[in-house]
Amino acid sequence: MKKLLLTLGFSALLSTSAFAQSFSFNVVSDPNIANAQPWELFEIHGDLTNLTNDTLFVLFERLTNDLPGPSWQSSICVNINCLAPFVDSDVFPVPPNETYDFRMNITPGTTAGQGHVVAKLSNNENLAEFFTQDYYVTTDTAVVSLEENSQVLPTFVLEQNFPNPFNPTTTINYELEIANSALAKLTIFNVLGQKIKDFALTQPKGSVTWNGTDNFGNEVSNGIYFYRLEAANQIETRKMVLMK
Fold first, then answer.
1. Are residues 211 and 98 in the same domain?
2. In this predicted model, what pLDDT tens digit does every residue of 33-61 receive, in sequence order?
3. Cβ-based neighbours of 64, under 8 Å, separated by 6 or more
4. Is the residue at 146 inside a domain?
5. Are residues 31 and 124 in the same domain?
6. Are residues 85 and 39 in the same domain?
7. Has this prediction a pTM greater than 0.85?
8. 184-218: per-residue pLDDT in tens?
9. Last-in-domain residue among 76, 111, 138
10. Which end of the chain is more exposed for a tag (fewer CB within 10 A), N or C?
11. 143 in a domain, yes or no?
12. Residue 134: alpha-carbon gap to chain centroid
């Protein structure tokens, strides 16, 4: 029988280049995060202070977003507001002498490897004033092993949902080995890695229909979602798009 051992370690090493006089920027989170789990959200905070007596317009850019796989996500955030993961820049006003939380959110997925994200914070009215910030994210290599004398791999199939994009419902087909089906589950996450919906799977082969609601029956917003099939030591993740 195939066994999948997925061990993820996570580290974010930050380096900053400073060329600004109208504002300061300091990383305040622990720059080294280890033993992360897939879909666990990490917020790497930085304090940006407007050193002037006027409103400062800060251009926050993600210059590089080199992540190991599609199950990983990063997004740039200011205070409680986060841009969608596919948006690379925006301009944010900071009042005189105020400090705002400019941070990078990173959610590791199930793919092992190293990711590299580079952010740049600039005075939008004087682009010669800027800070750059590097984030290096590392996961341990996934180890796949076969039991001794095993020649047949267990059935483990997660199909692409249909239709995709979808509105208002979509169907996800799966197939499992009978021995693993009792503990199997299918879970839907948003792009921040937050759990949206759980499905308990009672049959080794079947389908799940999702109507775009969470575990409490609330309708979710448009966007990208991920669905993950877990059975025994096996995991597979796919992406889908809800478009109303």
1. no
2. 767 677 777 788 999 999 999 999 999 99
3. 116, 117, 118
4. no
5. yes
6. yes
7. no
8. 889 999 987 888 999 988 888 889 999 999 999 99
9. 138
10. C
11. no
12. 17
